[in-house]
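Subject line: Sequence and fold of a protein, written as structure tokens
Enclosed: The protein record, placed directly beneath this head.
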Amino acid sequence: MDDTDRQLVALLRGNARLPVATLAKSLGVSRGTVQNRINRLAETGTIQGFTIRVRQEAEAARIRAIMMIEVEGERSDKILAALRGNPEITAVHTTNGRWDMVIELNTDTLQAFDRVLHRIRQINGITSSETSLLLSTYAL
């Protein structure tokens, strides 16, 4: 990726629905150049998809949490594979320090929350975990 690609990705992160003409004007390049770069970035897997962000208040009934897990030995890849595709998991981050991974969770009910915690804790190679509910979020 060059500087133009990085700027394009930054603009798309801010608003993936920006018209190609607007992106081209912001970058100082032609619409064809922008479209070709988007296509190339998608084909190479640099852009893995386009999504939406929903305002937290729009889903007020959701239960959100973070779960920190400790991984035994070199089992991170197997644990990531076991977590992949789980609809309650919105993100997985690898970290350093006390915890090896941080998992972002999102469920509709406490019962669903309990079930997903149980499933994750049963994954072979997870030696311990700590989970915290997210109560409020503040824009800074």
